[in-house]
């Protein structure tokens, strides 16, 4: 989609540090990490937010969780990790392309602020 930051990252128009890629998923290191390991997983289809997941596109979400599990293994995140999907204004979403944060390598407080 035009003018979408994450679509441009998927297309390689904007550089990123890739951590994972397959037919459905692209994942890269967050430019402003909130934990020692912080990757962002995005579907290779422009879906706006968690509020736009439906029966037609939910396969992308399943594939993202499979990718997260694979990266957690390859990065040896055996101490645990957190997966976060911010949604809309109150959810703190700043990029309008569905994404899942994978945060790890520090203790992550619960509940978050
Ligand atoms: P959110 O605030 O949940 O919408 O998450 C968007 C995330 O994208 C933030 O954690 C940003 O630091 C990250 N981000 C923004 N621009 C880039 C970029 N060019 N490369 C990597 N991560 C980015
Ligand atoms: Zn997009």
Radius of gyration: 14 Å
How many individual helices?
Answer: 2
Q: What is the average of the pLDDT values?
A: 97
Number of strands: 5
Structure commentary:
This protein has 113 residues and is α+β, with helices and mostly antiparallel strands. Helices cover 21% and strands 22% of the residues. The chain is built from two helices and five strands; from the N terminus they run αβββαββ. It has helices at residues 5-11, 58-74, and strands at residues 18-21, 25-29, 37-43, 81-84, 100-104. β2 and β3 (37-43) form a beta hairpin. The longest helix is centred in the middle third of the chain and has 17 residues, at 58-74. It is globular, with a radius of gyration of 14 Å. The protein starts with a helix and ends in a 9-residue tail after the last strand. 20% of the residues are buried. Bound molecules: adenosine monophosphate (AMP) and zinc ion. Adenosine monophosphate (AMP) binds at residues 5, 14, 16, 28, 30-32, 40, 86, 92-95.
């Amino acid at each position: 989609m035009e003018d979408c930051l994450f679509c441009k990252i998927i297309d390689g128009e904007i550089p990123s540090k890739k951590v994972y890629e397959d037919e459905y998923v692209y994942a890269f290191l967050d430019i402003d990490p909130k934990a020692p390991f912080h990757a962002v997983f995005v579907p290779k289809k422009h879906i706006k937010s968690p509020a736009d997941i439906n029966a037609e596109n939910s396969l992308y979400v399943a594939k993202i969780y499979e990718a997260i599990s694979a990266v957690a293994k390859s990065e040896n995140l055996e101490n645990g990790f957190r997966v976060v999907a911010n949604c809309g204004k109150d959810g703190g979403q700043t990029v309008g392309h569905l994404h899942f944060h994978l945060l790890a390598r520090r203790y992550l407080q619960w509940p978050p602020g």
